[in-house]
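Can anyone check this?
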Amino acid sequence: MKQGHTNEWMDVCLRVADVIRSRNFYEGLGFTRVEGDDADGWAVVVNGNARIGLFEQKYMNGRSFMLNFRGGDVLAKVAALEAKGYQFVTPARRSADGGGSATLEDPDGHRIFFDAEPNETMRLPS
């Protein structure tokens, strides 16, 4: 990721048992929901530059923690990393709307998810 780009950022994602309970907890700490749907089992909360994705089990593939690099051209990022020898767990794919995603693991098995939607920008509290 290049510094200074507002259309690229990282969220720390946590697996939660109950997104409403977890969202309420983080809102009590001063976070504000900027994305998500309680009925679907996920939320993204923000406090300053800190962003936390709260995801129920169905989104986390058994993982309790994941980094999510958002925005930019995912396919170009993946191609550049593969040229350096990185091997992706889930290969890069472009969605019908022009977005993209791919998954990498660090040496300790922590998942790193790259994804973007067309013209995506970082959402902040309104």
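Reply from J.R.: I decoded it. The beta strands are 8-16, 32-37, 42-47, 50-56, 65-71, 90-94, 100-105, 111-116.
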